[in-house]
Amino acid sequence: MKQINQHFNQNLSQQFTPRTLHFLTIVATIIGVVVLSLPWLGLNRVASWSADLLFFILADLIMVKLAQHRVNFLVSIFVGVGSAFIITLILVLYIGLVTGK
Fold first, then answer.
1. Sign of CA dihedral 62, 68, 69, 75
2. Integer Cα distance of 40 and 18 in angstroms
3. For the whole prediction, is pTM greater than 0.85?
4. Could you tell me the keywords of this UniProt record (predicted)?
5. Residue of 10, 48, 60, 88 with fewest CB within 10 Å of its CB?
6. What is the tens place of the pLDDT at every residue in 1-30?
7. Checking phi first, is residue 18 left (phi over 0); if not, alpha (psi -120 to 50) or beta?
8. Runs of H (alpha helix) within the chain
9. Rounded Cα distance, 30 and 11, in Å
């Protein structure tokens, strides 16, 4: 079982070069700023769609970072998806608070 876990971690962490991780971090930051500013402009649907996109990017980033630190593969999946879900939920609640819906 330990060999399978190491194989998944190596495979996942080798999928992304440092340049790709840097690019994804910049994209996640830009989308986060866009998600925070769109409700003020009245673009609620676009903000919700952007929050969904941000969820997937954040989940990937967190999972890859955990895989690079040799965390158990299943733990990295649960922590990555859970963290991204909580961040996205906070953003969606913020959108609802700003728009009143």
1. positive
2. 34
3. no
4. Membrane, Transmembrane, Transmembrane helix
5. 10
6. 566 666 666 666 677 778 888 888 888 888
7. alpha
8. 2-14, 18-41, 44-68, 73-99
9. 28
Q: How many residues does the chain have?
A: 101
Torsional sign, CA 25, 42, 94, 49: negative
State the Cα–Cα distance between residues 12 and 2, nearest whole angstrom.
15
Tokens 């941000």 sit on residue? 54
Instruction: Measure the CA dihedral 12/17/18/23, to 10°.
Output: -100
For the stretch 63-90, pLDDT in tens is: 888 877 777 777 888 888 888 889 888 8
DSSP character for 15?
S
The residue to which tokens 């939920």 are assigned: 89
